Amino acid sequence: MSTLTLSSDLMKSFKPCKAFTGYCQEDKDITALSFDDTGSTCVTASSDDTIHLFDTKLGKHQKYFRSGKYGVDLPCFTHSSSTIIYASTKQDNSIKYHSLHDNSYLQYYRGHQGKVNSLEMSPTDDMFLSASSDDTVRLWDLRTPQCQGLLHIKGNSIAAWDPSGLCFAVSLYSESMILLYDKGRYDQAPFATFALRDRDHRGRDIRPHPTCIKFSSNGNYILVGTNSPYHYILDSFSGQIYYRLTGHETFTSVNIQRDMLSWSPDGKFVVGGSKNGKIHVWEVPPTEPRDAAIKTLSPIHTTDNHKNTPSKIVAFNPRVVMLATAASSELAFWLPMQDSRRSSHN
């Protein structure tokens, strides 16, 4: 795999070099994926209650586990490549701490009374965040089953850490807002509140509903995916909307699409999926606009790969120049300037 510096030409050259089919039932979907800290392993969750591990360096499937009793969604590596956390989809809404080494549960984290919408490890320690449709956001520590912090947030919220691990963002779907909290003062009011406000092509005021939020690697920007025709890039300090991203066919569902967008590791590009299966690349200008007007960014590149199947999952490898996408039951690894090869599981 390459460690080249990203450029617009390089981003335009990305092609699927490996496609995995047959690792999920054809009538089921891959629902989420995650890379470990080293970028060498990718984990996926599917609606057929399976967890699959893939070696990103060799482009090979490694092993799988079944969670038939509890179901599985939102798998997320801890800071060890041998353990993950994930959300249950059956029986209860607990979060599981799972050893991939011996397929055992290390801990259960109970408290959510509704579907878990987002699950994310702190980038710096063993804390993690979960947000749920039960109108709560919870702060946890891997080392204890007791919830370390509880926020009552009305609406279909999601949560994301900033890269310093010192604060986190929470979205309010119905209110079209982003709230910022200090990790050390989570029980207090948010220290910043940003409203999403824009105008459509007819000049009418719109309030886009956030379905995905992610900080850039330097913490200066917040990427907000919505179920409107636009996605947005905000200044993470002032909340000013700098850019609206256009050109994709939006997912109009109210369901959370946590992985519909991904920053490149250097924060210079955004890659996103689309309802029609296309993968889009947007280039983020190196300097912010000098005026308050929202600038529109169109894709610098669009590619067909998933054959009109909604590409709901897009994730950049955190360490090398590699991209993973998923649509329905297919997982694809992308590299710059590579020939396509397809791998099927029998």
From TrEMBL:
SUPFAM superfamilies per UniProt: WD40 repeat-like
SMART domains attached to this UniProt entry: WD40
A Gene Ontology molecular function term of the record: chromatin binding
One matching Pfam family: WD40
Localization per Swiss-Prot or TrEMBL: Nucleus
Keywords from the UniProt entry: Nucleus, Repeat, WD repeat
Protein family membership: Belongs to the WD repeat SWD2 family.
InterPro entries (alphabetical): Swd2/WDR82, WD40/YVTN_repeat-like_dom_sf, WD40_repeat_CS, WD40_repeat_dom_sf, WD40_rpt
Superkingdom in the source lineage: Eukaryota
Protein name in the entry: WD repeat-containing protein 82
WD repeat boundaries on the chain: 109-144, 261-284
A single cellular component GO annotation: Set1C/COMPASS complex
Entry's Gene Ontology BP terms: RNA metabolic process
